[in-house]
Amino acid sequence: MDKTEKKKIEDKEQIHGNLRESIYLSLRDAITFGEILPGEQIFEDVIAKRFNVSRTPVREAIRQLQMEGYINVIPYVGAFVTKISPKNVEDIYDILIILEGYAVWEAIPKIKPRDLKQLKTLHNKIILAAQKNDVGEYYKNNIKFHMKFVELSGNEQLKDVLSSLRNKIYRTHYIGITIPGHFEEYITDHTQILDAISKGDREMAKRYMEDHIRRTKVILVDYLKRTQEQPSIIYWDYEK
Prior knowledge:
Blueprint lengths: L2 H30 L8 E2 L1 H8 L3 H13 L3 E4 L3 E4 L4 H22 L5 H19 L3 H19 L2 H13 L1 H9 L4 H16 L3 H26 L13
Antiparallel strand pairs: 1-3, 2-3
Helix pairs in contact: 1-3, 1-8, 2-3, 4-6, 4-7, 4-10, 5-6, 5-9, 6-7, 8-10, 9-10
């Protein structure tokens, strides 16, 4: 195989990978933001038509979503958006309480002034988003805030595990911050975490982070148990 042929194969594989990723992200966000509702069926041929692709990258994207718990595939029937189980959410948050607290504990000795400045910048963006009631911007910066501690911990295994767990609750975490009346509580939690970090108090920062995740869990799980429904925005327009 000459270099030209090899380059063509590599380019083709890259394009295929980009298509799969684009379809995956579109479907994941549509599920997360309530555009495709729990229990709704996902049709491969319709999605393939929308993206003007074959069914192969669609099937691969669906398989990834199935692995992350967004979709349930029933053989010979089809793929359906999974319903959110309050028990599963509670179980995952119980693990997050431990791991995110540990991430802060590990990160603090390694935090440099520029890192603390970045965390405070993210915190200010979160406050601004809350004031504007911009849930999307709040959500984006909140994830960056939390994952910054994991990054600073320097523990790649911890990063992989937490990323996997957060992928499983991606849509439920979004639901959690759309529940009215809790922005100020979450922001106060973040302020306490940053104050403890500024003082170099590992134990207090760890405790504040654990309390913060525990508070989020209680609010979200209580909401899910009370409603057993997920807030919806619009039905996803497959034909766009």
